[in-house]
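Objective 1b. Sequence-to-structure analysis of Glycoside hydrolase family 57 N-terminal domain-containing protein.
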Amino acid sequence: MSTSLSIAWPFDQLPIYLIVDDGAPLLNLDHWEQPNEDHVAVIPNEFLRQFIHGVQERGVRGKFTVLPYPMGLGAIDQSLPGVSPQLLQEFLQLVRDELEPWFDITPEILTHLNALDAYHDWLPLPFSEKRMISYHTEDSLILYFRRALQILNQAGLHPKGMTSPGTFGIEAEERYVSALAQAFRQETDVEVPFYYLHTDPLSLNIPPRLHAADPLQVVHVSSGHGDPLWPTKYGRPSTIDALLDANGQSGRIQQLVLHRSPIGFHTHWSSLYSDGSAVGLQELWRLIDRITAHYGNDIRWIRCSDLVQYVARVANVTVTTQESISELTVTLTSSQPVADFTLYLSKEPILVRLNGRILTRTDRPRAEGWWSARGHSVITWHLKPSQAELVVQFESR
């Protein structure tokens, strides 16, 4: 029987990431976006510290929005009405120094509220950013994206992707992706920008989706479920059981794990703060602790930028095989290095050689080596930008 071979996720563990939308320095978007509801205006920096502490303690990674021009009040690289310069700089320093190693930063376009006029001094327009795609050519969209990236860059942050407010861009996604590629090429050195637009609560597998845009490849990352913490803003219980119940026997995350899918889920900064009670944040930690308890060995928290770089680079790896009764030779060619490159084998080897060098068999995932798991074998190493030869020997039968 021939050996089944395929490229796997790093260490054959499912990538998992948390998406946090609607973040802004000290300001609660809900206070402006939902004026008929009684939401607090400020989310203090102390809450950001609590979030960062929990992230670091649990090893959580993902994507975090920082609005460049929140609610049209002002650009965060200059000043923000109602926020002292000291507190604004404190927020930016916390994000830059303590959160960015764990979470990629993205704009969620400029304001998340009224659109701004890219051709007339960025004055407010009488329609929201969520509906503005029909007013944009690709050129004007590039200007809009560039402005968002410029503000975050000048504020000392390092944007790696883009988040859409609502469903902005969904009806003109090709134009959106092309403009995004142009803007990132002009304003950053990001190799593979990503964007978050779609929530997919139904598909059994939600892998990142690669676009061969010009001049950069662009990758979409999905959320697999709606925000389970949203009700906590209104004093109602969270719906974290819909993602994973306490026994780990049901929920959207259990479904994605069962189908060996990447796992992305999202919430909102205001949902975590819950108008000052922080119930949403406590429920998030409860959910993450459940995930760890039930799937800790089967998942790996990852920043979206690291995930999409892996996706883009392995897409350019060519694999050829030659197999005899007791030996499989795999030739791989890559134009770029791929960290934690991982292959899945349907058989268990007795010996693995990489470019003539014997790889060590390990009892758990490591940066280089091979191990057996769930009836198959996994080989991981740092694939260099050249040709590699992997020779896998099996018992003769």
